[in-house]
Write a structure and sequence with these properties.
The protein contains 9 helices and no strands. It is mainly α and 227 residues long. The chain starts with a helix and ends with a helix. InterPro entries: Metallopeptidase_M50B (IPR052348), Peptidase_M50 (IPR008915), Rip2-like (IPR044537). It is a multi-pass membrane protein.
């Protein structure tokens, strides 16, 4: 129970920051491209209360962490009206890409912070320093995983909007019709992951790029630390 509580104390703040910035990035880029819907609905705030979904932001990732599953979650989607974008087709691609891109930037910030701490032996007392180092490593991992997971080309994930924008218009319309089955596909993916852990679906799909990016972010931390 103590280890679970410690994990939760590390996990929840990292996850909230990752998800809130992810969602705000969608709305902010949409505003820059002509759609102020998120601003009008007061969703460009960094106040987590405006974005947190009790199930997706707290319950699901907490349960996954408790049972040793891959940690991910979601927030209340920031509203985007593609019809108000200056160029709906390109605009939706950029709006979609803004979320994962923000997570990768946050991971880089975490790596720099980790490196700065590691490079200063007197940065904090040993116990607090170990706590901070663990949190930064978890923060990097969560942002990398969240960014890559959202790039999966499964509606309604961000990757589906990017793929739809890249496809010829005729194929894009057909691909867009999958959106009505998006949540079903998502539930099937999660259910299969739980029911058949030996398949390692998410690990096989997301694991290699997560490991590759984590290695580079940790290398950045080492470079900052001067190792």
């Amino acid at each position: 129970m103590t280890e679970t509580l410690q994990l939760a104390l590390l996990l929840i703040p990292c996850l909230i920051v990752a998800i809130v910035f992810h969602e705000v990035a969608h709305g902010y880029v949409a505003m820059l491209l002509g759609d102020p819907t998120a601003k009008e609905q007061r969703r460009l705030s960094l106040n987590p209360i405006r974005h947190v979904d009790p199930v997706g932001t707290l319950l699901v990732p907490g349960a996954l962490a408790l049972f040793g599953g891959p940690v991910f979650g979601w927030a209340k989607p920031v509203p985007v009206n593609f019809r108000r974008l200056n160029n709906p087709r390109i605009g939706m691609m950029l709006v979609a890409a803004a979320g994962p891109a923000t997570n990768f930037v946050l991971a880089a910030i975490g790596a720099v912070a980790l490196g700065l701490y590691a490079g200063s032996l007197t940065a904090a007392p040993a116990g607090a320093g170990e706590w901070f180092a663990s949190m930064m490593q978890l923060f990097i991992m969560i942002n990398v995983f969240l960014g890559l997971f959202n790039l999966l080309p499964i509606p309604p994930f961000d990757g589906s909007h990017i793929v739809e924008g890249l496809l010829p218009r005729s194929l894009a319309r057909q691909y867009g019709q999958l959106r009505q089955f998006g949540m079903l596909l998502f539930v099937v993916l999660i259910a299969a992951t739980w029911a058949f852990p030996q398949w390692g679906l998410i690990e096989k799909i997301i694991g290699p790029p997560v490991n590759w990016m984590m290695a580079h972010y940790l290398a950045l931390a080492q470079a900052v630390a001067g190792y």
